[in-house]
Amino acid sequence: MSKTYSPKRIEEFEADAVFQDKETGYLKVHNNSVEPVAGEKIYFWDMNSGKKSDVFDFASDFHEGLAFVGLRKKGFGYINTDFEFVIEPVYEDVSPFENGIAKVYRDGKEGFINRSGEFLFDPQLLTDRKYSEIGDYTDGLCMVSAMPVLERDFVSRNHGYNNPGIWGFIDTQGEEAVKPQYVFAENFQHGTAIAAKGEWVFDPEEFIYTAEDVRWGIIDKNGNEVVEFKYSCIRRVSLDGRFFAVCCTVGEKEVWGVADSDGNLLIEPKYKKIVEVHDGLAIFVDMVCVYNENEYDYVGVYDINNRKVIIEPKYSHISFEENGYFKVLTNKKRRSVVTLIDRDGNEIFDSEFTSIFTRCYPYIARIGDVRPMRYGLVDREGKVLFISEEGKQVHGINYEKRRVVYIGCNTFEMSLCDFDGNELISHKRGLIGGLENPLLTVKEYIDGVQRMGLIDADGNTVVDLLYDRIEWLNDNSGYIAATGRKNEIFIL
């Protein structure tokens, strides 16, 4: 049996829209205004203390303890979590703080300030050096381009990169850490940046600049080459930023390998694609099959530490799974099947499934490839625990409460079931959602108007279909229910 809920209303107020700030939990209350100038009036509200901020014409969410707000005829500034201005509203435009630095605009000039509102360096430095583009600080450095504005506007975009320039990097004192010299570049991450050397050449007939002799490499924060500038393309392929896919052009084909952030070439460029590197393993794509004059891609796994292929390229798809297995797409009995294999390439179970979702247990699987589709829950040995009705697919699942929401593929009828396949409620005219919340949300259109209510995990009605919208608080301790401009806060 589900827990019994009796929501208690603790507050009622009028507003056009209410959101909860993710960082602070404060409510951000919006009220449209048409007098004297069209716009929105916004204020923050700390529900715990009852304190409210002043009313602003614009307000961002809080980030790193500060929110930027705007006042008409004054400008943008920053307030702290006590709703006090720590940086006065004097700027024409601003950005959120990232690692204690924000970009601001005043009198047509760009500059960078710290959390006290002090400029990191004189904004005139940027103007004097005539940078045509100024990025944001990442990993302690900021990209800047010295390409003249007029030339930049006539650059060919056929190369596929949207950041042409003459790029370099400045430090937090405004000094050039890396002199502008690269035709393309990316922001620093984990101490390295991908960049490209080359030359901008003007074509008078086409009236465009194109980048010629483009060679990609990787630099450190001093501008030293970590990976030699000799590749036709480089991209990051690991979440920790330590591994890169590097590309060489051989004839008319591109071949890919892997290099690390120390400049070591770990896999010689020979594969059609490097998909991802994780836990010392690289997923690669190779062309290993030709049928009816068509080349077909297959995917395998390369062990970087032992310098060998551990899973031969014979699958249509491979992905890393959180349980240490690989999920692969292969062919069985002349149809596509998704299954799990270990690092030795052995199947964990004999699969007949056409899809498997394995991030939670039991797994969600699509059973066979017949129409209409059928879905079910599967244990770790591949045994089907139960199968949905024909024509229904999984719309949501809550493993803790052992509840599944199904939706009809053609009828859009929704049903709430337990893990034994028992239907607890059928919702013919609306939606069932919010399985991650203490109560599920139900939505129907009554006389053409959306109405929302709440049910428990057994399908019992807790809140009737009375509201235009229901939004849960960040900590799931309650929710905001609204009808028109009337907003009510309930706690469980």
If you had to describe this structure to a student in words, what would you say it looks like?
There is one protein chain. The protein is mainly β and 492 residues long. Among the domains are: 20-125, Lipocalin (Beta Barrel); 129-231, no CATH class; 388-492, no CATH class. It has a four-stranded antiparallel sheet, with no helix packed on it. A four-stranded antiparallel sheet has the order 5-6-7-8, with no helix packed on it. The longest helix has 5 residues, at 124-128. The mean pLDDT is 89.
- Count of DSSP-assigned helices: 2
The CATH topology of the domain at 20-125 is given as: Lipocalin
User: How much helix is in the residues?
Assistant: under 10%
Q: Stretches where pLDDT falls below 50 for ≥5 residues?
A: none
Alpha carbon gap, first and last residue: 17 Å
CATH class of the domain at 20-125: Mainly Beta
Sheet/helix structural class: mainly beta
Beta content comes to over 45%
The coarse overall form would be flat
| Average of the residue pLDDT scores | 89
- Could you give the count of β-strands? 45
Please state how the strands of the largest beta sheet are arranged side by side. Answer: 1-45-44-43
CATH architecture of the domain at 20-125: Beta Barrel
Q: What's the Cα radius of gyration?
A: 29 Å
